[in-house]
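Private note to self, pasted from the team thread so I don't lose it. C-alpha cells:
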C-alpha cells in the first residue's frame, strides 16, 4: 500500500493536534515518503520510543554531519567577520569596490549551506505500521461501500404488479 518510511515535519503552533496514540497536543507530524499517502501527528515522547518508531541510522549520520558542517561554517564566518573588522579598522580609506566583492562572496556561501536541510526519517514498528495500513484499508473499504450503496440499481426494484396477477401475463396455468 505505502512504504514504512516517514519523514518528521513540524507544523506551526496554532496547527497542533493530538498525538495518534496519547492525544497530547503536538506539532510533530510524520509524513510518508509517498506524497499524500499517509500522515499523522506523533509526540516527541513516542518518536523517541523504540517500540513505536526507530530513526534511520544512515539518516541520523547525515543529520549529525550536517550539524558539524554548519557549526564549522559558523565558526569560519565568525573568524572571517573579525578579520574583516580588523582590516577595516586598519585601513579607514578602503576602496568601496573591494568591500562589495567581499560581501558578495559571503552571501554566495550561505545559501549553499542552507540549500538542503535533512529531515529525520523514521521507520514505524511493525504493529504500528500494520495499524496504519489497516486504518487506510478500512477507509478505502468504507468509501467503496458508500459508492456501491449510492448506485440506484444495486437492489431489485419493487414489483409493480398485483400479487394475484402473474407478471408475465399468463394465468398461472401450465400447458
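Design output:
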Amino acid at each position: 500500500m505505502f512504504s514504512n518510511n516517514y519523514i518528521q515535519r513540524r507544523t506551526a503552533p496554532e496547527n497542533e493536534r493530538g498525538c495518534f496514540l496519547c492525544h497530547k497536543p503536538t506539532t510533530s507530524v510524520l509524513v510518508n515518503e509517498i506524497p499524500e499517502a499517509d500522515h499523522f501527528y506523533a509526540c516527541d515522547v513516542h518518536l523517541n520510543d523504540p517500540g513505536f518508531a526507530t530513526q534511520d541510522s544512515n539518516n541520523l549520520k547525515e543529520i549529525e554531519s550536517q550539524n558539524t558542517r554548519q557549526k564549522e561554517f559558523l565558526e569560519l564566518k565568525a573568524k572571517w567577520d573579525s578579520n574583516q573588522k580588523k582590516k577595516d579598522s586598519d585601513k579607514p580609506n578602503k576602496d568601496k569596490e573591494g568591500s562589495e566583492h567581499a560581501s558578495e562572496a559571503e552571501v554566495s556561501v550561505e545559501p549553499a549551506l542552507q540549500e538542503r536541510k535533512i529531515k529525520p526519517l523514521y521507520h514505524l514498528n511493525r504493529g504500528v505500521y500494520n495499524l496504519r495500513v489497516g486504518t487506510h484499508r478500512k477507509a478505502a473499504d468504507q468509501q467503496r461501500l458508500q459508492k456501491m450503496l449510492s448506485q440506484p440499481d444495486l437492489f431489485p426494484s419493487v414489483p409493480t404488479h398485483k400479487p394475484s396477477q402473474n407478471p408475465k401475463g399468463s394465468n398461472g396455468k401450465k400447458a
